[in-house]
Every structure is written in structure tokens, then in C-alpha cells.
Design a protein that fits this description.
Strand content of chain A: over 45%
Helix content of chain B: under 10%
Distance between the termini of chain A: 40 Å
Number of strands of chain B: 11
Strand content of chain B: over 45%
Oligomer: heterodimer
Radius of gyration of chain B: 14 Å
Number of helices of chain A: 0
Order of helices and strands of chain A: EEEEEEEEEEE
Structural class of chain A: mainly beta
Largest sheet of chain A: 6 strands, mixed
Structural class of chain B: mainly beta
Shape of chain B: globular
Radius of gyration of chain A: 14 Å
Number of strands of chain A: 11
Helix content of chain A: under 10%
Largest interface: A-B, 27 and 25 residues
Distance between the termini of chain B: 37 Å
Shape of chain A: globular
């Protein structure tokens, strides 16, 4: 019940294309869902986040879509650029009871120039 | 403003040794969390400290311990190192439980790369 399943494991997209990464969770107690971007040799950096009372959140080229009933959420990167090439992690957070911050297994995105 | 800082950047140890990793949170943040990230995997939650008290613990053996100091900096200690402890150890700081909401955005440091030979 504590897992966050992320897919695909790797993704190759042409420059200007749309990158889509999906995550699914099991525990309905999670109430905050951030996405992190990580470049080699660096720590993860917060990209965008959403709460379950919102179905979509957009910040620039990055959009989170959230489906509470399906317990799924996804990251869409519009007009993907070579500089977006990185590993992306979804996460789920719960602050009720035991503090929990669970990360997905990551998606390695490569955007071809 | 300075972000989360960690030291050292890299560390090489041999099996059975002990290691101490250090973290300084963002100014004003009272919570520090530690994560282990094995190559090719997502970060795995080890500990969370808030106001010097342990508030969360992941599924790690007792060889792992941590503490938080009055200035909110933190140390992660690992005893009796095993080859499998080789990983990137990440520290993340956040406002913590008093932020007034259920969200707790974490900001990560660059990590300490630990290699156990």
C-alpha cells in the first residue's frame, strides 16, 4: 500500500514533442503529489506539485493531470526540449499518522534535438 | 539564499567502518529528511526529523541513525558499513509540520556519494 508505481522506465521524445510520464498509488491517505527532476550528479529538484482536490495544474510547459478515482497522476511536458533530458520522479506524501514521502522508481527522459 | 548543503560531497569507506554525513537545511526550515538513492532507483526514505525529534523512519536497519541539532542541521550515521550501503545519500529540508497545511514540500541537497569497498 505504500508503493508508487511509475512508468515508463525510459522515454525518448523528439524536440517539440510531448513527454508523458504516469504514476499510480494505492494508499488513499496520500494528499500531496510532487514531481521532481534530477540531473546526473545532482539532487532532485521540485518541478511541480498537485493536491488531490485539483484535477489539473499547469506551470509553463509542465502539466500534472490527477485522477483521484483511479488513483493515478501524470506529468505532461509540452514542447519538450533537449534541456529537459533528465530523470523524473513522482512522489506521494502523507502527513497523517506516520510521516511518509514515497518516490516512484523514476523515468529517464531523453529529448532528441 | 543558500539551498540545502551537504558534506562531504564524496566519501570512500571500507566494509565495517562507520560514516557520518552532514546536512544544513534552508534557513527557516525546521525539518530535515534523509534518503538513500541507489543508482537507477528513486530515493528511499530513511528518516525525518522535526524540531530535533524523529517523526518518521523508513525500512532501514538499526545501523542507520540520525539526529538533529538545535540549529536544525542534521547528521546521518551509518555503522558497520556493507557493500550495499554504497549510494547517494540525499538530505531534504522543509518547513515541517507547523507550516499550517498538509503539504510539506521538500528541497533536496546535492547529496553525498558514498562508496563502500
Amino acid at each position: 500500500q505504500q508503493q508508487v508505481k511509475q512508468s515508463p522506465q525510459s522515454l525518448i521524445v523528439q524536440k517539440g514533442g510531448i513527454s508523458i510520464i504516469n504514476c499510480a498509488y494505492e494508499n488513499t491517505a496520500f494528499d500531496y503529489f510532487p514531481w521532481y527532476q534530477q540531473f546526473p550528479g545532482k539532487g532532485p529538484a521540485l518541478l511541480i506539485a498537485i493536491r488531490p482536490d485539483v484535477s489539473e495544474k499547469k506551470e509553463g510547459r509542465f502539466t500534472i493531470s490527477f485522477n483521484k478515482s483511479a488513483k493515478q497522476f501524470s506529468l505532461h511536458i509540452m514542447d519538450s526540449q533537449p534541456g529537459d533530458s533528465a530523470t523524473y520522479f513522482c512522489a506521494a506524501f502523507r502527513n497523517s499518522g506516520t510521516y511518509k514521502y514515497i518516490f516512484g522508481t523514476g523515468t529517464r527522459l531523453k529529448v532528441l534535438a | 539564499d543558500a539551498g540545502v548543503t551537504q558534506s562531504p560531497t564524496h566519501l570512500i569507506k571500507t566494509r565495517g567502518q562507520h560514516v557520518t554525513l552532514r546536512c544544513s537545511p534552508i534557513s527557516g526550515h525546521k525539518s530535515v529528511s534523509w534518503y538513500q538513492q541507489v543508482l537507477g532507483q528513486g530515493p528511499q526514505f530513511i528518516f525525518q526529523y522535526y524540531e530535533k525529534e524523529e517523526r518518521g523512519r523508513g525500512n532501514f536497519p538499526d545501523r542507520f541513525s540520525a539526529r538533529q541539532f538545535p540549529n536544525y542541521s542534521s547528521e546521518l550515521n551509518v555503522n558497520a558499513l556493507l557493500l550495499g550501503d554504497s549510494a547517494l545519500y540525499l538530505c531534504a529540508s522543509s518547513l515541517g509540520f507547523s507550516s499550517g497545511g498538509s503539504t510539506d514540500t521538500q528541497y533536496f541537497g546535492p547529496g553525498t556519494r558514498l562508496t563502500v569497498l
